[in-house]
# Entry
Amino acid sequence: MAKLTPVDSSMIQAVGYDSETCVLEVLFNSGRTYCYEEVPPDVYEALMALDSKGRFMHSEIIDVYPDHPVSRRRRR
# Structure
């Protein structure tokens, strides 16, 4: 997965995007991480360019693209 980039948002902590697989990974301020599949590069670029990333997530990404939560393994 692509490196997560911190963003200034009341809803989102960091965003990563893999242009080869068109997978958007979003770390929310709640601590939960979700991957959104089939996200075109221009949608990712629009998300990163806007000041209101949360509003864009709700209107253009959440419930639009297939998603699944990411579970992080604990270090031993």
